[in-house]
């Protein structure tokens, strides 16, 4: 209990510890056990009162929300303050669905003000579902393709993502792309001008081919009699 109270004091009154937090796994299990005892009606009244004093959520659904928030906070901490989890990421699919549901609640004005405030405090963005989802899809694509974070628009299997990539390039070209988004795209190796890069690559290849043709070790063929060795010059009486 004392350890949990210290955690709450250090986290602005957030009295929750996730079982997935490697640094506090045992404390997370202890929290889970307190909720189980409460559900079974076996939690001592004095202990229940003390937990309520530090605003510990004994309700199961409240606990699930708190655990998801804590998991998202850890994700943000590990990713430079980006509080986002994608449904397309197999490791965080469940958390990704939870994030989508929070946006749905907020859009329909059904998200509790205190919960919205706490989500905003860890860097959660409510109106970025589409952009973040596409970014996460591109990041996963890049990981599986040797760090190439670009999908050609002609890729029929990823047509929507290819179009999204084109939109990002166009937005950057006219100066309409937010700096934080540009930084995130650059961070995964996104090329804002792949056609220019392709042209430079083609030009460099032509230059190297030309150098190889000019300096491949083959001497220029003699064109006049003066250029020929003396032994090959015919003599006339």
What does this structure look like?
The structure is a single chain. With 237 residues, this protein is an all-alpha fold. It is built from ten helices and no strands. It has helices spanning 2-10, 25-39, 45-53, 60-78, 93-107, 113-121, 129-143, 159-173, 179-187, 194-214. It is elongated and about 90 Å long. It starts with a helix and ends in a 23-residue tail after the last helix. The model is unreliable at 217-228 and 231-237 (pLDDT under 50).
How would the blueprint of this fold be written?
Elements lengths: L1 H9 L14 H15 L5 H9 L6 H19 L14 H15 L5 H9 L7 H15 L15 H15 L5 H9 L6 H21 L23
Task: Summarize, please.
By secondary structure, the protein is mostly helical.
Defining key terms:
237 residues; mainly alpha; 57% helix; elongated
Shape: elongated
State the secondary-structure class.
mainly alpha
User: In percent, how much strand structure appears in the residues?
Assistant: under 5%
Radius of gyration: 32 Å
The profile of the biggest β sheet is:
none
Overall average pLDDT:
78
Helix content: 55-70%
């Amino acid at each position: 209990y004392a350890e949990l109270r210290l955690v709450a004091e250090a986290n602005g009154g957030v009295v929750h510890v996730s079982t997935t937090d490697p640094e506090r796994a045992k404390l997370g299990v202890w929290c889970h056990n307190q909720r189980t005892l409460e559900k079974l009606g076996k939690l001592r009244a004095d202990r229940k009162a003390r937990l309520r004093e530090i605003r510990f959520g004994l309700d199961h659904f409240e606990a699930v929300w708190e655990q998801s928030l804590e998991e998202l906070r850890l994700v943000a901490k590990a990713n430079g303050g980006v509080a986002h989890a994608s449904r397309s990421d197999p490791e965080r699919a469940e958390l990704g669905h939870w994030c989508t549901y929070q946006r749905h609640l907020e859009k329909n004005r059904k998200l509790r003000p205190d919960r919205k405030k706490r989500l905003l405090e860890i860097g959660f963005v409510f109106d970025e579902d589409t952009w973040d989802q596409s970014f996460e899809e591109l990041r996963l694509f890049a990981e599986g393709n040797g760090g190439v974070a670009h999908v050609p628009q002609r890729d029929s299997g990823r047509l929507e993502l290819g179009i999204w990539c084109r939109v990002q390039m166009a937005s950057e070209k006219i100066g309409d792309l937010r700096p934080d988004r540009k930084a995130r795209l650059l961070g995964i190796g996104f090329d804002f001008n792949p056609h220019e890069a392709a042209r430079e690559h083609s030009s460099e290849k032509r230059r190297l081919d030309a150098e190889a043709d000019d300096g491949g070790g083959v001497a220029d063929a003699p064109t006049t009699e003066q250029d020929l060795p003396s032994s090959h010059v015919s003599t006339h009486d």
